[in-house]
Amino acid sequence: MSKTLHEAALSTPNARKGLPEGNHWRGINADVHLGYRKQKRGGRWMVRWYRGDQKYKQATIGSADDGKMEANGVDCLSFEQARTKAAKVASQARAEEIAAADGPTPTVAMAVEAYCEAQEAKERAAGEGRGDARLRLTKHVLSTKLPNVALHSLTETDLGRWRSGLSKELAPATVRRIVNDLRAALNAAAMKHRARLPAEISMIIKAGLATVDAETAQARDKQALPDADIRRIVEAAATVDAEDRWEGDLLRLVLVLSATGARFSQVKRNAVGDVQIAQGRLMVPTSRKGRGKKKASHIGVRIGSDVIESLRPAIAGRRAKEPLLERWRHKQQKAGDDCPARWERKGRSPWRSASELQRPWQRIVKEAGLPADTVPYALRHSSIVRQLRAGLPVRLVAALHDTSARMIELHYSAAIVDALDELSAGAVIPLVPTSGKGGAAQSRIVTATRQAGETPAGFPAALQADADGARTNGRP
Hints:
Elements: H1 13-17, E1 22-27, E2 32-38, E3 43-52, E4 55-64, E5 76-77, H2 79-99, H3 108-125, H4 133-140, H5 156-164, H6 172-192, H7 201-208, H8 227-243, H9 249-260, H10 264-267, E6 275-276, E7 281-285, E8 298-302, H11 305-315, E9 326-333, E10 342-350, H12 358-368, H13 378-389, H14 394-400, H15 405-411, H16 413-425, H17 436-451, H18 461-472
Parallel strand pairs: 4-5
Antiparallel strand pairs: 1-2, 2-3, 3-4, 6-7, 7-8, 9-10
Domain Core-binding (CB): 106-190
Protein name: Tyrosine-type recombinase/integrase
Family: Belongs to the 'phage' integrase family.
């Protein structure tokens, strides 16, 4: 810089009172200066920052507390408040310049769009239909004010305000999916544009989208259904399948979900060769959840012979790599002069997303006579609780359902307690002898407890009578 900065005394109203009219500066650091413009009626705070090539950029940040107004930290600032705001304004301006230096300034909307495109490319490469991420983010993120925020100026307050604006009618699981999708989109953009964004952007994303109720475990075992209700759901699925001409496609999907307890995203990837008839087993593809995990591609789950028989039409005469669970696709034909518009079948393809099950599931639940809020995921909860109550080890139940033992313990604790209680009951043994000297000791215990107004549960009636007789005859 060509000139030496002559710092003025600006820290108190009295010090500023003795300054002549005009601009006076004080350094915050080597490239940022806090300014004070003395006027006839009070003064104003300014900030300027060095842009290179002997050039500065300047901005007014508020009025000074020169005695006529008290500092409020918003539009009337004390010296300390002005210095803090000046540093923030300069830092924000530099961040904007850096962000705009190499193409358009990255925004939340750009991050969401890039994330959706990446997810769809991944799904196409895996031969799957389009997932629900774009639908969720379009409805709950892109329709708000958040997408217009530039990433370099994103704050925890922006993210918190967006989150508090989500509909209160959304289920906690839905909110978690939306938040997780947005977090993944922002983190991917922060990594891609890290040279153009503030260093603290990752911490802002983490803190702003931290799960508020994560640590409050939801008792999912309460959402499990009795085996009789599961059978009613399967029977209702068969009825709806026949009435709506699904040709077994709907029934087979519900059967596989019920028999394996797997997620929809897993069973939709099942191939014909995954059905192992001789072993009575279905090899379920593992989920793609998690990052950096090394795990097997499939999990072997035992299924009943009735389920295998129901799957036979889907595997007969087909190649091992073909999709196991398919459905008909329809195309609407335009109405003509002599015929109305109609839907015609145009071919078969795998199930694509869980949303395709929504309408038929509502009919199934109604046909089965179950509460309207019963969701398909209840089939998974029911499978986990059924195995826990059957006494299977927690680690085995977790492995069969492609989750962790910690998650099972966190969300299905009641079922675990019931199972362990039945096991531990078998380890209970009588501790008080019932014959010889021990019998006399037991009689004394009965007598003592009766004197206290209590009768010990589980004691033989003969011993209680003996204790009564001993007390009547005056024996101790």
